[in-house]
Amino acid sequence: MAAPRKYPDELRERAVREVRTTGRPIAQVAKDLGIHKEALRGWVRQADADSGERDDRLTTAEREELKQLRGENAELKRANEILKAASVFLPRRSTIPGRGRAGDRSPA
């Protein structure tokens, strides 16, 4: 589970909007709002990526999808490991069609 956010979403949106509309430096806006300037810089970059102005970062939606896919991948890997471990205990079957277990001979 992710840690709670230090700053509310409303403050993030307001800060990014202020940087964009006023043209003031990020450091000044951050100081006025009581936010760390690097936090605000990251929010502005992410907002730019989400709006399509930057292509060097993943959008928020892409980040969420990546997080979900990584979780699914980890779950599938765990399932595969369980199946591999369980297969050791299962009887082997012949790879020849029509044959049962190795050594079983059906009357011909």
Report on the architecture of this protein.
Helices cover 59% and strands 0% of the residues. The protein has four helices and no strands. Helix 1 (9-22) crosses helix 3 (37-50) and helix 2 (26-33) crosses helix 3 (37-50).
Element layout with pairings:
Elements lengths: L8 H14 L3 H8 L3 H14 L9 H28 L21
How would you summarize what this structure contains?
The protein is mainly alpha-helical and 108 residues long. The chain has helices at residues 9-22, 26-33, 37-50, 60-87.
CATH architecture of the largest domain: Orthogonal Bundle
Q: What's the SSE pattern?
A: HHHH
- The shape, in one word, is elongated
**DSSP E strands, number:** 0
- Helix/strand-derived category reads mainly alpha
The number of distinct helices, counting runs of at least 4 residues, comes to 4
Separation of termini?
A: 61 Å
The fold-level CATH name of the largest domain is Arc Repressor Mutant, subunit A
Query: Could you say how many structural domains there are in total?
Result: 2
> Can you tell me the residue ranges where pLDDT is under 50 for at least 5 consecutive residues?
none
* Beta content: under 5%
Biggest β-sheet strands, sense, barrel: none
Share of helix, binned: 55-70%
Q: Which radius of gyration do the C-alpha atoms yield?
A: 28 Å
